[in-house]
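User: I'm putting together a teaching handout on how multi-component assemblies are represented. Below are the sequence lines for each component of a complex, exactly as they appear in our records. Could you produce the 3D structure of the whole assembly as structure tokens, so the students can see both representations side by side? Please keep the chain order the same as the input.
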Amino acid sequence: MTTDYNNIAQWYKKSKELPIRLHVEAYTYFNMLGDLAGKSLLDLACGEGFYTRQFKRKGALRVIGVDISEKMIELARQQETKEPLSIEYIVGDVLELGEIGSFNLVVASYLLNYSQTKEQLLKMCQNIFVNLKPGGRFVTINNNSEQPLESYLTCEKYGLIKSVDEPLQEGTPITYTISVDGKTFSFENYYLSASTYEWAFQSVGFKEFRWHKPMLSPDGVREFSQEFWQDCLNYPPLIGIECIK
Ligand SMILES: C[S@@+](CC[C@H](N)C(=O)[O-])C[C@H]1O[C@@H](n2cnc3c(N)ncnc32)[C@H](O)[C@@H]1O
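Assistant: Of course. Below is the structure of the complete assembly, with chains in the same order as your input.
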């Protein structure tokens, strides 16, 4: 099992084409982000830059992407060479990042769920907080800790299987198995309770935080029907979070 994206970088990139990513994940993320025009933005765990490029295209002024995986950053830089957008990519561990600037927005899709302990989560949140201007926002998409275990299998029809080998408790590994174009690959992240997340946001000094239930795009309903998405809306595998400094 891996949390190392060097081996699955190409396949992870392809998985962004899954309808759940487009119609639920991306739709929710951009709704939370709002207008990006003129904003400075730090994208943590940016992967190969799928969202990072979209932030720049949507008008963000300065965009930096950070990821721990050299392979992911290599793919991001290749794309930057093909289609220059003036995005800077850095190989780095968010646990060790420190202050690299002062941004209007720090964003991340699927970063915090790599924290295995509350101490690691706190460290990540500290490194997010120090990179924000006062009043700046941290906006993220994350594994939904509150999704009932019994509903994990309902995600299968969206091309995503979540599974665990033990009861959910702090630090339990969650395996994600994704099927795309007939190829199946897996990676792991970790369960921490919603109250541990809230504790970390408060401890580092965020003034406010909000959980955002996933939203479904009108195109998603037209293309697949409301019924197809109902399990995803009833038992969301992912959740949005917004914190204000
Ligand atoms: C599920 S992928 C998401 C990539 C991208 N945000 C997206 O949505 O396409 C998770 C990413 O987190 C990165 N990652 C995991 N732990 C990290 C850490 N401590 N610091 C920086 N990146 C990390 C992995 O290398 C991987 O690229």
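A couple of points students might notice: The radius of gyration is 17 Å. Residues 5, 16, 45-47, 50-51, 67-69, 72, 93-95, 109-111, 114 surround S-adenosylmethionine (CB under 6 Å).
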